[in-house]
Structure formats: structure tokens, C-alpha cells
Write a structure and sequence with these properties.
Structural class: alpha/beta
Low-confidence stretches: none
Helix content: 40-55%
Largest sheet: 8 strands, mixed
Strand content: 5-15%
Length: 430
Amino acid sequence: MTPGARVSAVIEIIEKIDRSYSPSDKVITSYLRGRRYIGSKDRRYITETTFSVLRHTAHLNFWTKAGSARERLVAYLAGVKRISEASIEKLFDGKGYSPPPLNSTERNLASSLLTGGHGNDTPPLWVQTEFPEWLTEAMETYWANNFGEETEALNKPAPVDLRVNTLKADCGRALQILKNDGLEANPTPYSPVGLRLTERRNLQPTTAFKGGFVEIQDEGSQIIALLTDAKADHKTIDFCAGAGGKTLALAAAMKDGGPLLACDTDKARLDRLTPRLKRAGISNISRHTLLDKSDGWYEEHKQSAARVLIDVPCSGSGAWRRAPASKWRLTCEKLEEYRTLQSSILDQASGLVAPGGRLIYATCSVLPQENEIQISAFLERSATFRTLPVSEVWQETIGDACPSSGPYLHLTPARTQTDGFFCAILERLS
């Protein structure tokens, strides 16, 4: 592809993302899958540029007054990448598959950004930090002096983390298999079964992935599974299993022993576990599609599980570095919907925990409304549970020093180089 054709592709993808409610990575993948003629280097440029544009959404909207995808890309090339006006004109020359030439407004926009004359007003804090305006004041108070560091880390590209499938290999062997595939990785700082690739690569065709030796999973997600402390012959329930990333990790920790139950309200998501189970060599998982509260399954498993993990639906704010477009789709109303659902799931799942058993509540969120505030409200409703200090459980399960202080686990890209995760470990009193 010519440089101009690449730019045209980025504009087209951003327009699709603007119109779609699908995650941006799925929009990009769908676009590229339908155009097999695009080479690997072009795919990488298109993908990386699109994500970089999305990470600068607040600035680009501020500069262009929420202009079109084309205007935002012009602003990105001039204001972020600092590409000369002549070079931008060359990309937009209208030849072949290049975008049509710049109009006078776009030309003035590029020139103004390059000369530092675009707008006399200093961008507000939420624009400077690329953070939703309606959340900025509260989170600036919550994070205090770390606000800038936390928001900056949430807006950087995320690494590719892998979980070693200990049913098939240890970390040493997995590293060798990856090396044979032409990939380099290093152990992650906290998860004893985690590896981090030194550069982003496609794992799908590799022996390491196809052979089930590794699974793609952020280190923070691995830590949640480890803190669940699942053991063979202790009933464990993954109550919000989704496509099963943590379920697979629990199964490996249980050494493919059972019983391990994976539940979700969406049968299609549970069905996506099938090829993953086969690849990982796992046979100990029973699946159940949850119905409404009248589902007899709840009574069948009432107060019977040693461990119940609930990785609840949430804002996904902890993974905004992977899905930068989603931060602008979150609203106060949507957050309240998540909070209501989380409260309901807590009440339902808590009834499955046996006396002396543990309820592990987790979110991929950095927002206190979904995290410690949610747990405080649950503990007020249910006097039969108490909080176990996460540092103690960390010592029991992982062994090194816990990177989070206080009763709960808080992980963020800035502090732990993981996605943002929260975890509370609650024990049902005997």
C-alpha cells in the first residue's frame, strides 16, 4: 500500500468505530480480515495508527471542535506526530487510493497546529489527561497526587502477557517453545506463571499457542485467578465466566481436578470455551447457562462451594489502554447500570459459598464506585461475610510481597504495569 492508501484505511476504520458500538479492536480486525491483500507491515501501521488516534481523542476533538474522522487525522498528523504540512499534503494528494486533497479549513488546521498558533486557550485538565470530563474531578480527588501518572499510564499501549499452561509446561519450557517460534519473552514481575512478550506479535500461528502451552492473559487477570486459591477436590465456581480466561487458569491451578463449574448468562460466550478447553488439554469443567433467579441450579449448589469467583461486568476502565474508544462511551447512567448489576450478582453468588468458603469479587475497573464502595455496601447487607486482608491471601497463594496495601487488591498500569484490577476476598463465617 502507498502511504496515502494507509491513511485512507485509517480514516475509514475510525469512521466505522464512530458509528459502531463494537470494541475498536474488533472493528479493526473485521476490516483487515475482509482485505487479505493488505500486507503485514501495512496492517501494523494501520492498527497502531488507529489506536494512537483513539488515544488522543480528547485533544483531537478539542483542536477540531469534534470534527470528522478525516479532520481528526489531519490534526493527529500535525499536532501529535508533527509531520510537516508538505508531507501531509503529499499523503492527501487524491492519487490512487489516497484521500482527496486538503481543503482550506484542513490546511489552516495543520498549519496552525504546526506553528503553535492553534487556539489560545490551555486545554482543560480532562483534555490534557485524555480522561472523561465527568469523571475527572472525582478521580483527581481519589488518586490525589498520582492522578497525572495514573491517567497517563491508562493511555499507553498495553504489552502482550501470556499465562503458561502448567498442565503442559513450566515457564522454562514455555520460554524455549516461544523462542523456537521466534518470540522473546520475560517473566512477569508478580505472576509466577506469567510471561510478557518483548514486542507485540501475532501468536495465533505459533506452536506455543496452537499447542496450548500458553494463553493470552493480562498479568492482573492471572493474579485474580491465583488469589482465588482453587484446589482439586474443593468445589470452585466461576460465576461470570464469559469466554473463560480465568476459568482456564483455575482449571490449571486445580491440576485438572474438580469440581469446577463455569457459569454465565450468555450461552454463546460459554460455547467459545470449547476450542480453548481442547487446546489446553482440560476436561474438569462443567458449564451452566444461568437463567433467572428461579433457576433450580442456585438451590442445587446453595452454600456448597469452597470458592466462588465473580469477575463482574463493569466499566472496563482498568483496560482503557487496550480499548481507548470505550472510555468515551461510558456514561454516568451506564455506570449506574453496572453498579446495580454488580450488587445483584454479589447477592446471588454469595448464596453459593459454603461456611468457611470464600467469595472473590473482581472488576477490571479503577473506579471506587464499582470497587470498595460496592463491597462496603454488600458487607452492610450481609453480616455473614468478613473481609480477608489481601496481603495474607497473597502470601498463601503467590508468596512474594503484595504490591497493594489495605484490605483489597488495587492494580493499575501505573503502579503494577498490569491492567487496572480490583479484588476483594470475603469469607463466609462458619
